[in-house]
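Lecture notes, part 5. Sequence design as translation. It can be helpful to think of inverse folding as translation between two languages: the language of shapes and the language of residues. The source text, in structure tokens, appears below.
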């Protein structure tokens, strides 16, 4: 029996949507990120529709889809349902090749049983209809049904329809694959945001006309990524404005800024102590740090990292030798591999991020999408400055190398620059954009 047949957990993949708020305008807004919503987003975007937005209040596939058994049975009571399910049985095995995500498809084949005369009439009708739509369906007797699936008792079975093309998916994984496909084709998906109200144009009689929806009102759930980033931005903007008012404006450097490393009652420290020395226990820290740095990048602010854990939850006998505290991001006495510079570090993926070290002019915007491994910035070049723009491209975020797209900029000799840097020279006074794709 294929392993995937029994591993029917709802969603095994950790799939994160980019943290952001939906745009102000869209051509289509789909409310709900179950299998139906994600499928709509996928198909509309694939058909070339622009500005398709999907909004999910919780996590993708967290609604009914989460509970589904995942059977893709092609024998349905109506023509349209039969055609949809026939198409599903065609699409799902192909989705992985397109989106890179395993939907857990197994062509199990299907048997639909009839135990009374009326049911048999209905089965014969639907089987005939299925064949009209090109769905392979065979009427079989009780014994033949049992040969196909020996575990069934057939004493009260009058007959069955056998469908060789039926199969099953893992519903949550299938939803994620459709979501990934939708994103690939340009749709924008957002989770942890609730649609609170549908807005519509009033009808000529002054009543709300819900056949003419013109917009939606939404609200980010408390504590979501979008909201946390927005809160960071709001607070940091206040600090930035303060320094702009002092002495006619001074640069802002945020000091001692970070997240507490004893997140979730120090669960990650306990996992480390129990022998889990990989990056997994620190994923939550990496996500939290990502939200913080995304906000700093949006405001083009620099900050000093300070993540120490006042509760001293790391092993009391270790630490950095100062106040018996570990500095959270690194403990020299918890290095396991002397050859590996990163050994002893924690949540490195959270703060080892690409950024502009030097700009030949004025930085206008900077954005890093960790999930897509894409870093972008825009700057106003001043060619009278003799030094190039220098961008830190850490191997940790781009382990398989990167593709540079920097039209009009001249890449300088990498032998001179450190291997994790890009140096780019501008010869014109204008706006340049740089995109680094992992
Ligand atoms: C036990 C069980 C077994 C099943 N087995 C099968 C099977 O084998 N084969 C099969 O084909 N079907 C099966 N089904 C049916 C199938 O699971 C559902 O038909 C399907 O999942 C419905 O998908 P959906 O996207 O319409 O709904 P949902 O998955 O419920 O998605 C709706 C989404 O909308 C979101 N939402 C709601 N309100 C808002 C709001 N205001 N703002 C933002 N988001 C919002 C919800 O959070 C939810 O995620 C089964 C169902 C159950 C319960």
């Amino acid at each position: 029996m294929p392993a995937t047949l029994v591993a029917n957990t709802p969603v095994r993949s950790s799939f994160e949507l980019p943290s952001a708020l939906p745009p102000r305008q869209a051509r289509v807004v789909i409310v709900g990120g179950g299998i139906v919503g994600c499928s709509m987003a996928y198909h509309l975007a694939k058909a070339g529709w622009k500005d398709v937005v999907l909004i999910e209040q919780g996590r993708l596939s967290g609604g009914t889809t989460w509970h589904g058994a995942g059977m893709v049975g092609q024998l349905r009571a109506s023509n349209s349902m039969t055609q949809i399910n026939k198409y599903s049985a065609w699409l799902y095995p192909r989705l992985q090749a397109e989106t890179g995500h395993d939907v857990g498809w197994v062509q199990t084949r299907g048997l639909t049983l009839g135990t009374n005369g009326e049911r048999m009439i209905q089965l014969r009708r639907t089987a005939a209809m299925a064949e009209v739509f090109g769905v392979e369906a065979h009427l079989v007797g009780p014994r033949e049904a049992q040969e196909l699936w020996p575990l069934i008792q057939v004493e009260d079975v009058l007959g069955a329809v056998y469908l060789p093309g039926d199969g099953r998916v893992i519903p949550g994984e299938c939803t994620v694959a459709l979501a990934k496909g939708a994103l690939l084709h340009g749709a924008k998906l957002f989770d942890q945001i609730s649609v609170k109200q549908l807005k519509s144009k009033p009808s000529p009689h002054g009543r709300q006309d819900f056949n003419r929806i013109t917009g939606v009102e939404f609200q980010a759930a408390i504590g979501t990524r979008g909201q946390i980033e927005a809160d960071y931005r709001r607070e940091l903007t206040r600090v930035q404005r303060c320094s702009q008012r002092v002495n006619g404006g001074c640069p802002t450097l945020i000091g001692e800024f970070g997240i507490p490393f004893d997140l979730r009652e120090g669960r990650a420290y306990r996992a480390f102590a129990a022998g889990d020395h990989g990056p997994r226990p620190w994923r939550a820290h990496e996500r939290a740090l990502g939200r913080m740095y995304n906000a700093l990048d949006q405001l083009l602010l620099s900050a000093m990292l300070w993540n120490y854990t006042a509760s001293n939850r790391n092993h009391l006998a270790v630490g950095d030798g100062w106040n018996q505290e570990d500095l959270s991001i690194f403990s020299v006495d918890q290095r396991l591999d002397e050859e590996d510079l990163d050994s002893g570090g924690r949540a490195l993926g959270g703060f080892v991020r690409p950024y502009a070290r030097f700009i030949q002019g004025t930085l206008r915007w900077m954005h890093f999408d960790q999930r897509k491994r894409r870093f972008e910035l825009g700057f106003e070049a001043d060619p009278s400055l003799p030094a190039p723009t220098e961008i830190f491209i850490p191997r940790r975020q781009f382990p398989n190398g990167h593709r540079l797209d920097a039209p009009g900029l001249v890449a300088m000799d990498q032998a001179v620059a450190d291997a994790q840097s890009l140096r780019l020279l501008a010869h014109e006074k204008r706006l340049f954009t740089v995109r680094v794709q992992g």
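The translated text above is only one of many valid answers, since several sequences can fold into similar shapes. The mean pLDDT is 86.
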